[in-house]
Amino acid sequence: xxxxLKIMPELTTTLLQQEIDYVLTYGDFGGAFESYNIVKDRxxxxxxxxxxxxxxxxxxDYLMKLKFLSLEYFNDLDDYYELIKDYFxxxxxxxxxxLWSKLEIYLVSVGNLEVxxxxxxxxxxxxxxxxxxxxxxxxxxxxEMPAKVGEWTKDFIINLGLDSFDKVKxxxxxxxxxxxxxxxxxxxxxxxxxxxxxxxxxxxxxxxEGYENSVVMNLDGKPVIFNRGTVEEVRGLDEIRKVADAIxxxxxxxxxxxxxxxxxxxxxxxxxxxPAAPASNVPSATISHTAELETMLKNYPPDSLExxxxxxxxxxxxxxxxxxxxxx
Length: 328
Description:
Elements: H1 4-7, H2 13-26, H3 29-46, H4 48-51, H5 53-69, H6 77-93, H7 99-108, H8 113-128, H9 149-160, H10 167-176, H11 185-202, E1 215-219, E2 222-227, E3 230-233, H12 237-248, H13 264-267, H14 289-297, H15 305-327
Antiparallel strand pairs: 1-2, 2-3
């Protein structure tokens, strides 16, 4: 891809929207990261923050959208925290963008499950403290209606509790909640998206429902993939070989190791039908980061944004490893 932001002498909102549309269509998240840095530098040099604050905020919003799109290229937890706390509604403005897939890529790269839970807690805290407007209450002529992101997460807790949300209560809340029933379709979709992310962040990575890694193991003599509390059969020897090849041929990188098989008995302890130890004819549950992403890739349709996001991360890791090996 030619990065038009490099060669265009002037930034325009039309150009920035075209860049965002391109990334969403083709999954060029590396290009989004490059564009983010270009726009960031241009904005800092422009002086718009002082000369034209409203215009600056307009460009800043496009900048933050580019940051959401390239989030896997940021390693500092503060980047995630501040972006989500201050600009969460912008993520919902991008049609087809799945913020959770970005968070999941980060979580899978972290081997320590305690660290994963700390990350989830911090992101949940960012949402709780967010003053970003999600719903315009004036549109509904209801001064009591939650408007900010943090006000909606508080409403979740009031109606659904502090623990994992009961499915029946959740359905009732989304269909006939005091405020949700008043919302139009677009605003309801925003609340559903926020609730979905918030609910996933509440699940500890130490539980079978909250464990992000896809693990190949044996169930009654058949190879299966365990993923978020569900089990899917691996169909065909070609798929088994593909997973095995991805593991055996993985290039070592500097990313943290994924969780080892010793955490699986605790996660699966209430699921006795699924043995924790993998069979000898399927790959070990201790798999490297790139191989883990290769396995995760199976869970998404090839034309989905999640598939593109995970594929992009795999490519990025292998490029990093290739550069590292070339310098040795």
